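Q: Now give one record:
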Amino acid sequence: MAAVDIAQLGGPDIAALIFRDSTMFKRLNMDALELEVSQGLAGGVPAVVDHYASLVEGFSGRPTRRNRLKHSMGATTAYLNGLRDDLHTFLGTLPAVHIVGVSGEAAADARVERPRLAFGVTGVPSETVLRRLLANGIVATQTCATPLLEDMGVADIGGAVTIAMSPFNTQNDIEQLVRTVASLA
């Protein structure tokens, strides 16, 4: 059995359990499993797992799908962590940018472990930030207002947008994002 969190692969918030033996399904409480995404999207999970397992080059050891996937996911995690660190560093140098949950005195030494990031540009409505990003080929979503985000001051800076990174992103994508955001500040 393998457990996969597709959100960590840059996909939607869905997790999957993959079984070699279908008799294991009888052990699951099907009422406890909720599917909040389309079945078609969920059906693509095995293809994603196969794709990641096929990314391994120069793998030494027993070349089982599980071993290749484990090796590939380690390399993918390291790659995404590097992109995430660069994104935080470069966006964090822009004085008008507030990275939600990371910027500020209380979060001075915080480390974010997710490939997603919500940020706002002080004095620029999030709708404007979102339109500028989309016009420059950067896909983002407007961050929904919640009481927690209100308490964190997101409304005071004009709202926030959320971006996510995937293994298909490159350093050029990070640079394009930072340039676009800098043009607003």
